[in-house]
Design goal:
The chain is mostly helical. It is built from four helices and no strands. The protein is 78% helix and 0% strand.
C-alpha cells in the first residue's frame, strides 16, 4: 500500500513538472527515453513505472528542482 501511495505521488510530481514546463506527454516520453504510450499509461493509471523508469523520473525531477 505504501508503495502505491509513493507511486501516485511520484506521478503527480511528474505531471506537475510536465504542466509547469508546458511539454506534451510525447516530449516527456522523449526526455525519459520511453514510448509515448508508456507515459500515457502511467497518467491514466493502467501501468506504473518500473524501477529503471522510476530512477530516470527521479533524476529528471531532481534536475528540475535544482534549476528552479
Amino acid at each position: 500500500m505504501l508503495y502505491y501511495v509513493y507511486m501516485i505521488e511520484l506521478l503527480e510530481k511528474l505531471e506537475i513538472y510536465r504542466l509547469k514546463n508546458k511539454i506534451s506527454q510525447r516530449k516527456l516520453a522523449e526526455k525519459l527515453g520511453v514510448a509515448y504510450n508508456t507515459v500515457n499509461r502511467w497518467f491514466t493509471g493502467k501501468t506504473i513505472p518500473n524501477k529503471i523508469q522510476q530512477y530516470h523520473i527521479k533524476k529528471l525531477l531532481e534536475t528540475s528542482d535544482n534549476t528552479s
